[in-house]
Amino acid sequence: MSQEAERVYTVNLGKVLLSPDNQRAKRAVNMVKEFARHHMKAEQIKLEEDVSHLLWSRSIKHPPRKIRVQMTRTDEGYILVSKYEGEQEEKNKEELKKIDETSKEEPAPKPAAKSAPKPAAKSAPKPAAKSAPKPAAKSDDTSPEFFKQKDKEKKKKSESKSKE
Fold it and tell me: Are residues 58 and 10 in the same domain?
């Protein structure tokens, strides 16, 4: 077979707005199927549930103006239209790499920071010691430096208020 098994398209649904309000999402579904028939040269088209949810997400009156889909030719001979998530997956992978790099740089300071509060926890009352490390652990794992600084400022303010 000389054709590719799967392709990615952006389907323009702007003409859906020419339909009456109470018919737009239905027409959007038909337009996606018609687009698939035209570009993939097949009669049997099946939409995945994700694509249907995407078209109907803003109710029948306000479907999206365009959607990004992946069309796959199956062994049974029909075309399966699914939501394209390739660009988002690449962005997510890049974000995960950045998080991994920052976590690799910070492991040495973390054990020192964890060991310091433990002796203080023994001398201080137990409820205060338990509540202090939990927010610090959450902010260290995922938040950028800006938010870490804001959290530290909030802690200082709350500690000064509790002392007064």
Answer: yes
How does pLDDT run across 43-91, given as a tens digit for each residue?
999 999 999 999 999 999 999 999 999 999 999 999 999 999 887 666 7
DSSP H/E element including 45: strand 45-47
d(CA 48, CA 84): 11
Structure tokens at 123: 């001398």
Task: Please give the model's pTM, rounded to 2 decimal places.
Answer: 0.54
Q: Given 55, 85, 115, which residue is the final one in a domain?
A: 85
What does the angle CA 9 – CA 11 – CA 15 come to, to the nearest 5 degrees? 165
Specify if 1 maps to a domain: no
Per the structure, the count of domains in the chain is: 2
What is the layout of strands, in order, in the sheet containing 66-73?
A: 6-12, 66-73, 79-83, 45-47
Which domain, by its residues, includes 30?
Answer: 6-85
Tens digit of each residue's pLDDT (9 = 90 or more) over 120-157 = 445 545 554 455 455 544 444 455 676 777 788 888 87
Question: 33, 51, 85: which is the final residue of a domain?
Answer: 85
